[in-house]
Each structure stands twice: as C-alpha cells, then as structure tokens.
C-alpha cells in the first residue's frame, strides 16, 4: 500500500490525526485513571425501602416507602450507581414479634470502599398481628365524575365483598371500602369498567392494608337532568 500514491496519503492522514490528538492531550483525558479513582460523592433520591419481617403472621405499618442515600467513594464505583433500582435499602425485622421498633436503614449491594448515609437515618416501624376479614365495598362515583348534563341513576359493583388483610389496629380504623374508576374522563353514558378498591378511615385517609380482589367491576347508569312540570290548558271558543 505504501508504494501507491493513495496509500501514502492515507498513512499521512492517520499520522496527522494521531499527532493532533496527542498535542491536544485527548488520549490523556480518556485514559487518565486519576480522575476515575479519585473520591467522589453522589445522592440517589427516592430509593425504595424493603422491610424484612415475618409477613406470614405479621403486618407492617408506618414504614417509609422511600429514602435518599448519600454515597461517597471512588468515582469508578459511583458511576455505576445511577438509579434508585441500583441500590437496596432494607430494615431487618426478620426475628421480631408484634410491636413498635426503631431501626436504622441498611444499604446492601455496594462495594466495601463505598460509604453511605441514609436520610432519614432511621424509622419507627410498627408490626401488628395479621388478620383477615370480609368487608363490604361501596361504589364510589360522585357527581364530579359525571358530565354536567347527566346525573347518576344507579350504580353497582361485583363482587360486593372482598377480603381485607392487615394489622388488627389497621382493620379497626377502616370506615369505608370504596371502588373508584381508574379512568378520569367525564361519564356521559352507562358505563361498565374495572374499579380499584381502597380502604379509608373516617377522615378519608388511605390505609395500608391488602385487599383481595383489589379490583371489582363497577356499573354506573346515568340519565339527563329532567324535571316534571304541570301543564295548564286554556280553551278558547266552543266546538261544534
């Protein structure tokens, strides 16, 4: 190839590119291990919390769903951790019975040379004896879900009862089981769709319980607004 004119031109081009990159320290930036090995910090937000406990006999309440984790260590290790799913935050109550516990969070799945701190540092967790009850579900379609020209004439659900599992105190707090349509569009005709069941206390705070089935069929019949008006007749003249 070097014997041809085009071969010499190609080699010259490659050498020119190489010298240009060398002068501008491009290779040094790419292969600089000092930047990769230096200490760095990073915060991963909204990392899910996994509470480890005897879920066969107990039910957990008051445990946080997410925490923020601050990491410190070699940059080469931290660049591998980008998303909340890359970390595992746990509270270990595997040997505990029903009661109140104040426990620190543990972060698993990271290298030994990476240190961490969790915000908040700890959590109050309540373990209750698990019980199951059959409870009645109320259809929950309000006028705000209906087109302004219509009103609800009838609504029903199937099945009407579900099994609710949770802590004993949690089940005592349940005032309503409501089945609500998932879709948010205004209803302007008879509708039959899947509705999600949730448990609420007297102040309509959502409760942390397990519901089976968690979805039911909800039927709603609507009719246009109407009013009965009495008609008064007035006759003029006489018939033959």
Task: Provide an overview of this structure.
There is one protein chain. The strands form three sheets. A five-stranded mixed β-sheet has the order 6-4-1-3-7. Strands 2, 5, 8, 11 and 14 form a five-stranded antiparallel β-sheet that branches. The protein is flat, with a radius of gyration of 33 Å. The chain is 16% helix and 45% strand. It starts with a helix and ends in a 16-residue tail after the last strand. It is an alpha+beta fold.
Provide the structure class.
alpha+beta
What's the tally of helices?
Answer: 5
Average pLDDT number = 84
| Integer-rounded radius of gyration | 33 Å
The N- to C-terminal Cα distance equals 123 Å
What spatial form do the alpha-carbon principal axes imply? Answer: flat
Helix content: 10-25%
The sequence of SSEs as H and E is HHHEEEHEEEEEEEEHEEEE
| Main sheet attributes: strand count, strand direction, barrel closure | 5 strands, mixed
Reading side by side through the largest sheet, how are the strands ordered?
6-4-1-3-7
- Regarding quaternary structure, what we see is single chain
Q: Strand share of the residues?
A: over 45%
Number of strands: 15
Low-confidence stretches: 26-33
